[in-house]
Amino acid sequence: MKVFRQIGLLCLCFLLLAGCAPNPPLENVAETPMPQADTPAPTDTPAPTDTPAPAPKTEGFVFQSASLSDWGSMALEADGCLWGWGNNDYGMIGDGTAENALAPVPVLDGVVAVSRSNSHTMAIRSDGSLWGWGCNAEYAVSGDFPPIMNNPTPRKVLDDVAQVSAGGQFTLALKTDGSLWGWGSNWLGLFGDTEAQQDPVKLLDDVACLPEVGGYALAIKTDGRLLVWEGNDWRTLLGGVVQASSGYFHIMAVRADGSLWAWGDNICGQLGNGKMKTQKNKPVKVMKDVAQVAAGNYFTMILKTDGSLWSCGGNDLGQLGDGKTAFRRTKVNKVMDDVISVAASGQHTVAVKADGSLWAWGANWQGQLGNGETEDCPFPIKIF
To answer: Is the whole model's pTM more than 0.90, yes or no?
Structure first.
């Protein structure tokens, strides 16, 4: 286990500094032209504004969702209170410090959505304003803030935002009018001929859903087409999609009929089709009656419409939640029932149950499980 942890840390550090190894090509069905990039008027980006953290409470916790990075976690309560824990080297938790937190700390009130990367965190408040904090060395948080490594306090970035995804030193934001914007590091080539995009630049129109950035930048159009940024263009991968998630080298998608589709690398059985080491360059149907899917680095969590949570793929640190640490799992295994939301990243998982309770399992060397310890855990433990 220690060997896998050391290998994982070396890989993650490399990814944070250098971006990510090039993704393998994926079979595409059609291409969609990228619209002329433009930049919003200065009035679209409000002046920076700080906000105090909410007062901590001791009871009445009802969670609804979570967002994870390899080294930390953020979780959102139904009343809009945002919590964070884990690694905090760049102030990604947002509590005004750079100290790691082994247990959840309150960060911000009035939040409706959150996305955390290994370097920064972005959150949308109920008024549609976008807030950010963490590393801003390549303007991943905002070009209006100093390009420094540590910004530990939430600051207002943009207005009229519906969804957000924090990637590796860059940010994608879906505005309420359906336009997709991005800024920050340009290691994926999203922003043309520049190393870092300081101001928000428009990437697409008519976008309905913005999946969190994993190994790929994805977008779901209003007509249900799932797009992936590949090389220097957006390409269509699958139609009729309502939700999607990507790991390092695999993509999972839920279609409107509840069917789950998978493609890409399958070295650890992360596609969930019962096979291993067989890469799929075209989407293959995995199962039916799926409500949500969440892809970790080399594993996948599947939430079915009946509330049951299933897992498959790499499991060296217990990220599948089945009580074991077998490195590879070729079958889809049931983890727990009564789940309404799940998040996966790196080598740990966080799930929310129907009663609003928050559960976590997997890697924990940075305190990313939030249970006050740093020991990995191969089975679900209740955090709140």
So the answer is: no
